[in-house]
Amino acid sequence: MGDARNLKPLTLHVPEPRFRPGDAADFSDLEVPPAGAAPRPDTAAPPRDFTDLAYTMVRVLDEQHQAVGPWNPRLSPDTLRRMLRHMATVRAFDERMFRAQRQGKTSFYMKSLGEEAVAVAAAHALDAEDMCFPSYRQQGLLIARGCPLVDMMNQIYSNTGDKLQGKQLPIMYSEKRFGFFSISGNLTTQYPQAVGWAMASASKGDTRIAATWCGEGSTAEGDFHSALTFATVYRAPVIFNVVNNQWAISSFSGFAGAEATTFAARAIGYGIAGLRVDGNDPLAVYAATRWAAERARTNVGPTLIEHFTYRAEGHSTSDDPSQYRSTGEPTSWPLGDPIRRLKDHLVALGEWDEPRQEAMDRAVAEEVRAAQKAAEANGILGHGLAQPLDSLFDGVFEEMPWHLREQRQMMIDEEAASGRPWDRK
Amino acid sequence: MTDVIDTPITTRMNMIQAINSAMDATMARDPDVIVMGEDVGYFGGVFRATAGLQAKYGKTRVFDTPITECGIIGVAVGMGAYGLRPVPEIQFADYIYPALDQLVSEAARLRYRSAGDFTAPITVRSPYGGGIFGGQTHSQSPEGIFTHVSGIKTVIPSTPYDAKGLLIAAIADNDPVLFLEPKRIYNGPFNGHWDRPAENWSKHPGGEVPTGYYTVPLGEAKVVRAGEAVTMLAYGTMVHVCAQVAADTGVDAEIIDLRTLVPLDIAAIERSVRKTGRCMVVHEATRTGGFGAELAALVQERCFYHLEAPVERVTGFDTPYPHSLEWAYFPGPVRIGQALKKILKD
Ligand SMILES: Cc1ncc(C[n+]2csc(CCOP(=O)(O)OP(=O)(O)O)c2C)c(N)n1
After folding, report:
1. A277 pairs with which residues across the strands?
2. Could B337 and A417 be called an inter-chain contact, meaning their C-beta atoms sit closer than 8 Å?
3. What per-residue confidence (pLDDT) applies to B5?
4. Any chain A CB within 8 A of the CB of B97?
5. Are A215 and A362 contained in the same domain?
6. Are residues A210 and A353 located together in one domain of the fold?
7. Residue B155: beta bridge partners?
8. Both A78 and A104 in a single domain?
C-alpha cells in the first residue's frame, strides 16, 4: 500500500468517553450557559434565523433558584406544585417497580431517574388531546396525564388487570385514552409514526398536534432521518424530542455523533427549528415545549428539542453501568436533580417548605404503595395463568383465520394433555 | 469434510465463551477480521460475547457502533468491499429488520450482480429465540426470512463446540453468513421443561471445546441421536428439547441437528428418512412459510416412497411472541410428544 506521493497513512477515529470505571468524573469544563441568556425567537420566525439556539442551552432556573429570562413560562405556583408532585410520583413509582423486578415479581423494568422533567414538564405544556409517541422512558407522560398507577403496574406484572393481556414486555404501555401510542421495543419507529399522525391531523383540519421522544442513541436509526425529512417537507405539526441522557446502553453519546455537534443541530440541515434545552430544568422543558407547540399549532412547522440530561442509573434492570462508566458521573452531573431544582424554586418563591415537601413525599409513597398492593392483588408475572390461555391468539388479526383457529385448538389440546395446573379462565 | 482441529487441548466453555473464543481465534490469525456492533466494544456486548476483544485487538478492530442496524450492515458491506472480513453483531435478531435492505438487496447479491467483482465476506452474529421472558422484541426466530433469500447462508449452532467451529468456518467463508445464536442455551442446554432447574454446559459433551482454531464445516448436519423409529429434524435450542422428548417417551428417534440451514445437508436428511420412514420437523419460529415448510417439501419430493406417514411440523404458533404466555407458545415437550404419537400411530 505504498504511495508514490508519500502521503501520510490514514487513521480511523473511534470515539472514547472521557470517564471509564475507576476514573474520577469531572464535568467542570462542560459548557453550561447562564440561565436566562438564550433569546426567545418569535414562534413565527424561520429556523435559519435562530440556528444558534441549537448549540447553546435554553435555561430558566438560575443558581439562586429564580426563574429568569425570556423563556420563563411564568407558571402559577399551583402548576409548579403539580409538576413537582408528578415528578416525585414518577420517581417513587420507578423505585418501587425496580424493586419489584429485583424481587422476582416481573421480568423487566426501566427507570427514568434524573430525567423526570423531560416527560412531566412536556405533558404539562402540551394539551391533553395532543398525541404522544414516546419511547420506553416517558412514563412521566402517563403519570402527568393522570393514568392510574395501578393500570401501569398491572401491565408491568402482566397480571389479570393488564389491559394488554400480558402480550407486551413490562413498561411497553399503550394508552390511547391518554393520548399515548403503543410503545415499541424497536428503537425510533415512533418517530415517522408521529409525523404521520401529525400530517393526518393537519390534512383533516384538526387542531391537535403530535409529539415524539427518542434517546440520543436512537437518533442514529434511519427512521429518525426519515421522520425529519417528512416533517420538513409537509411542515407537519409535530415536536421531536431527543432525550440526550449521555448514554445509550454502554455507548456514550459520541457514538451517535455528539463529538462533532449537538443533537439539536440535526434539525438545521432539515430546515427544522432546533432548540437545545437544559433537560433537568423543568421550566425550560416546559417553555420550549410550549414554544414548539405554538409553532406547530400555527402551521409554522416542526421543532426538534434536544433535552440535555443524564441517565442517573442503569439502562434497565438488565444493566450494570459500573461496568462501563465512572460511578462518579451521576453525582457530579452539573445540571443537578430536576426535582430538587423545582422544589428549591418553589421554596425561593415562598410557595413551599420542608414540612410540605415531606408531607408530599409521604403522600406520594403511600399512593404508590397502595397502587402496588392493588396491582399485586391481580397477580404477578409467572404465578399462575393470569390471562386466558386462548387469548394468546386474540389480536393477531381482527378476525381469526382458519390456521390460527386450528393452532388455538392444538394449544388447548396440548394443555389438557400436559396435566398442568393451569386454571383456564 | 470433517472438523479440522489444530490443537488437541480442550476446556469447558459455555456457548458465549465459545463464540468469544471463535472470534479471538480468527482475529489472532487474520488481521482483516473486525468486530463491530452496538455495545460490543469496551463493554463486550450485552451478552458479553465480545468481552475482552477490544482490550486485546484494539479499538479499530473491535468497536461500538451507532444504533443503526441498516448502517451496521451497510458499513460491513463496504468494509468487505475493501477487503476486510467484518463480523457485525445485531444485538437481538428482533432488531435485524432495519438492516433488511442491506442484507437482502446488497450483501446477498453482491457477488452475483458484480459477477464476482465484489463479494460480501461478512458474518452477522445475532442472538435469537425465546424462553427468556423477553416479550415480542427479544424472542423472535427470523431464520425463515433469510433462508428465503438467495445468496446468504444461515447457520445455527446447538452446542458450544459447534458454535465455535461453525463461527470460525462462517468467518472464513467468502459469502455472507447469518449466524444465529440460540440465546436460551447460551448458558446451558435447555430441555424444554421450563419448570425444572436450569442446567449448565459443564456436563454436556458439547461443552468440551478445543482452545485453538478449528472449524466445523458449513453445510454438514450432525446425527445427535441415532434411531430407527422416526427422523426428527431440528436446530438450535430445539435439538435439546427433541433429545429430552426421545428420552422421556422412549421413542427410538433419530435426531438430526441441521446446524446449517443454507446450504442444507440434504444427504444426511435423505439417508435418515429412507431408514426411518417418518419425518418430523421441529422449530421455534412461526409455522406459516417457516423453514419447516421447506424441509417438509424437500422430504416429500425426495423420500415420498419411503414415507409411512405425512411429515409432521412442530413449530411456534403464528402469533407475535407473547410475554406472559411464553410457555404456551413455546413448542415444548408436550407439543412434540403429541406430534410423535400422531406420526407413529400406524
Ligand atoms: C432497532 C433496535 N436496535 C437495538 C435495540 C436495543 N436497544 C434498546 S435500548 C438501546 C439504547 C438506546 O439508547 P438511547 O436511544 O440513548 O435511549 P436511552 O435508553 O438512553 O433512553 C438499545 C441499543 C432496540 N431496542 N431496537
Report:
1. A58, A307
2. yes
3. 77
4. yes
5. yes
6. yes
7. B179, B260
8. yes
Paired strand residues for A303: A239, A273
Percent of chain A with pLDDT over 90: 93
Total domain count for chain A?
2
Close Cβ partners of B265 (under 8 Å, ≥ 6 residues apart):
B219, B220, B221, B258, B259
pLDDT band at residue A417 under the 50/70/90 scheme = confident
B65 CA: distance to closest CA in chain A (Å): 6
* Pocket of ligand 1 contains residue A105 by CB under 6 Å: no
> Rg of chain A's alpha carbons, rounded to an integer?
23
Which residues of chain A make contact with B59, given a CB cutoff of 8 A? 14, 16
Distance between Cα B91 and ligand 1 center (Å): 10
H helix intervals, B30-68: 53-57
Q: Indicate whether A408 and A368 sit together in one domain.
A: no
Q: B48 to chain A: nearest residue by CA?
A: A323
CA B211 – CA B214 distance, rounded (Å) = 9
The mean of the pLDDT values for chain B is 97
Is the pLDDT at A422 greater than 80, yes or no?
Answer: no
> How many C-beta atoms surround the C-beta of residue B126 within 10 A?
22
Grid look-up 445468496 returns B151
Q: Can you read off the three cell numbers belonging to residue A22?
A: 475507576
Could you tell me the strand order of the sheet in which A210-215 lies?
A131-133, A210-215, A238-244, A303-308, A273-278
List, as ranges, residues 250-279 from B with C-beta within 8 Å of A. none
Residues A404 and A308 in one domain: no
Q: Report the residue from B67, B69, B135 with minimal CB separation from A185.
A: B135
Active-site annotation holds for B283: no
Distance separating alpha carbons of residues B188 and B210, to the nearest angstrom: 18
- Confirm if B212 and B26 have CB atoms less than 8 A apart: no
Answer for the pair B75, B37: CB distance below 8 angstroms, yes or no. Answer: no
Please indicate whether residue A217, judged by its CB atom, sits closer than 6 Å to ligand 1. Answer: yes
Strand partners, B232: B255, B280
Confirm or reject: Cβ of A172 under 6 Å from ligand 1: no
A110: in domain: yes
Q: For the domain that residue A63 is a member of, what is the CATH number?
A: 3.40.50.970
CB A285 within 8 A of CB A122: yes
Q: Which has the closest alpha carbon to B174: B85, B78, B82?
A: B85
How far apart are the CA of B267 and the nearest CA of chain A, in angstroms? 32
**B112–chain A Cβ distance below 8 A for any pair:** no
Give pLDDT, residue A424.
41
pLDDT at A425: 37
For residue A28, being part of any structural domain is answered with no
Angstrom distance (rounded) from CA B180 to CA B285: 13
Q: Which helix (H) or strand (E) holds A339?
A: helix A338-348
* A338 plus A393 within the same structural domain: no
A318 within ligand 1 shell (Cβ under 6 A) = no
CA–CA distances in Å: residue A288 to residues A42, A113, A121: 12, 21, 10
For residue A242, report the phi and psi dihedrals to the nearest 5 degrees. -110, 115
Dist CA A102 CA A157 (whole Å): 13
A289 in contact with ligand 1, CB cutoff 6 A? no
- Host domain of residue A54: 47-383
A153 closest CA partner among A387, A379, A395? A379
A to B CB pairs, distance under 8 Å: 140
Judge: A393–B319 Cβ closer than 8 Å, yes or no: yes
Interface test with B, best of A105, A159, A167 (most B CBs within 10 A): A167
Find the B178 Cα to ligand 1 centroid distance in Å.
Answer: 22
pLDDT at A5: 86
Across the range A46-69, mean pLDDT stands at: 98
Q: What is the pLDDT of residues A126-154, one digit of tens each?
A: 999 999 999 999 999 999 999 999 999 99
Q: For ligand 1, atom 3, name the residue with the nearest CA.
A: B95
